[in-house]
Inverse folding.
């Protein structure tokens, strides 16, 4: 999701596609007919996906996370069950997988080749006692995992020690996004006391809701922190506590950004739909140059060097910029829209819009594409397709064919289509409802 690499399967011995399924897999009662905890990891092998006769998608490996991380069991000593597996990130050496549980605030580290649990942490209680792990991402050097503790309004770090092959939740590194001040003396969170419909809500220094959404790690090992209320902070993940090095208000960068991908020294990020009571829909794309100077230690507020440049989108209803992928060699950008069921294609070089590709068709009348990632071969994009009972972002993410979507790139990158779906049907034993709800996705090289 955060870089552009195309590999030979012969060199790497194949790959796997990992997908999170947010449905609860345990704790069913009459009072909780959708269950209370758990979830699934679903893993497809490239030998099946790349089968000469066509993708074989009906025999993935399935891991029940309620069983793997049962509270009080050998793999979970946190005192709480894991709930809602949301986002996945693979380490740069493809040895470990970081899995964020958005509802319970856990982050799991899994040894990818063996599927064995390596570590499990629960993030800290923050604003109002809340804690979540909306997304976790590896730093560029692989020495840490940074975590967006969304409702807790904390940005946290898990350290990795290569010498001992061990992980540690480093609470001294935590950045409190609700209570901190930037190096420029400005409050990190402004809590502007005006209605969002008022133009004064949006300003050069306004960051009215600092729930972190996604950490986007750049090649220069800086972390772009997107915020629920809009605006953006850039942090140095190696400092203790992690240090803010740049800041931008919500007049310059929209709310609820999550997709991020880098091509050369240019980072492309989006801002999309949030909650039904804030921004029910949204579609905006931005370009940021990854050219943070070695000195000074931080930039003036809204400095032009990292200022987001808006290049696509508007405030129209029924749009949601979510998954964002750079194609082979980074020539084209593919932006997946959950609400419109489209892929918007832009040339990365001059940011020109090339084409809008519809995804609804014979395979699915409402695929609802979410997070996406490029195939190591560069000819496909793998995308999570949401279910009819979405566990998160329900107003913007209800689809009819939950599963792994394969978007095949054609016509030298300027076209493509949804060519296959690996269904992840999961029948709730109490109400016979379709509870499968894929979200996070990544590729691991074997």
């Amino acid at each position: 999701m955060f870089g552009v690499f195309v590999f030979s399967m012969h060199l790497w011995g194949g790959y796997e596609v990992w997908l999170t399924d947010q449905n609860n897999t345990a704790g069913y009662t009459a009072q909780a007919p959708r269950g209370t905890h758990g979830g699934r990891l679903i893993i497809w092998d490239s030998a099946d996906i790349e089968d000469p006769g066509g993708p074989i998608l009906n025999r993935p490996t399935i891991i029940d996370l309620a069983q793997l991380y049962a509270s009080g069991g050998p793999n979970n000593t946190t005192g709480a069950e894991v709930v809602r597996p949301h986002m996945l990130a693979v380490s740069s050496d493809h040895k470990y997988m970081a899995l964020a549980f958005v509802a319970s605030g856990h982050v799991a580290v899994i040894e990818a080749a063996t599927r064995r649990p390596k570590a499990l942490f629960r993030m800290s209680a923050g604003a109002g006692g809340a804690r979540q792990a909306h997304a976790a991402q590896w730093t560029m050097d692989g020495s840490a995992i940074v975590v967006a503790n969304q409702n807790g309004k904390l940005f946290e770090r898990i350290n990795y020690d290569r010498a001992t092959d061990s992980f540690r939740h480093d609470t001294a590194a935590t950045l409190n996004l609700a209570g901190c001040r930037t190096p420029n003396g400005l409050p990190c969170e402004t809590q502007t006391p005006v209605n969002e419909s008022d133009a004064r809500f949006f300003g050069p220094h306004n960051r009215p809701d600092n729930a972190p959404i996604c950490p986007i790690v750049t090649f220069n090992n800086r972390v772009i922190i997107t915020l629920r209320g809009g605006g953006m902070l850039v942090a140095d993940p190696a400092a203790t506590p992690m240090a803010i090095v740049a800041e931008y208000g919500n007049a310059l960068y929209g709310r609820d950004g999550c997709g991020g991908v880098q091509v050369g020294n240019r980072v492309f990020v989006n801002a999309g739909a949030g909650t039904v009571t804030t921004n029910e829909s949204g579609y905006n794309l931005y370009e940021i140059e990854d050219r943070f100077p070695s000195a000074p230690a931080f930039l003036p507020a809204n400095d032009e060097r990292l200022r987001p440049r808006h290049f696509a989108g508007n405030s129209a209803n029924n749009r949601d910029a979510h998954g964002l992928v750079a194609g082979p060699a980074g020539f084209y950008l593919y932006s997946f829209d959950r609400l419109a069921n489209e892929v918007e294609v832009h040339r990365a070089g001059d940011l020109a819009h090339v084409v809008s590709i519809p995804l609804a068709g014979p395979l699915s009348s409402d695929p609802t594409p979410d997070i996406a990632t490029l195939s190591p071969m560069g000819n496909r994009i793998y995308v999570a397709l949401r279910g009819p009972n979405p566990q998160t972002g329900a107003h913007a993410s209800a689809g009819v064919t939950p599963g792994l979507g394969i978007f095949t790139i054609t016509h030298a990158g300027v076209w493509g289509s949804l060519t296959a779906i690996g269904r992840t049907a999961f029948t709730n034993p109490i109400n016979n409802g379709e509870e499968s709800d894929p979200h996070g996705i990544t590729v691991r090289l074997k």
